[in-house]
Every structure is written in C-alpha cells, then in structure tokens.
Design brief:
Order of helices and strands: HH
Keywords: Membrane, Transmembrane, Transmembrane helix
Distance between the termini: 42 Å
Helix content: over 70%
Number of helices: 2
Largest sheet: none
Structural class: mainly alpha
Strand content: under 5%
Shape: rod-shaped
Amino acid sequence: MLDWWERYLFSILLPIASLAVVPPFPLSS
C-alpha cells in the first residue's frame, strides 16, 4: 500500500534514477 507521499517520492526519484543510469552522451556531445 503506497501513501501519497510515497507516490510523490517515487515520481521524483524514478526520473532521476533513470537519468543517472543512462550515460549522458547527448549532453557531452
């Protein structure tokens, strides 16, 4: 059971984690 703050936390951490996993090649080029 997820509370609203847990969904809010995941909605922030998931995009950050996905950006951290993918190497920033488009940013460096």
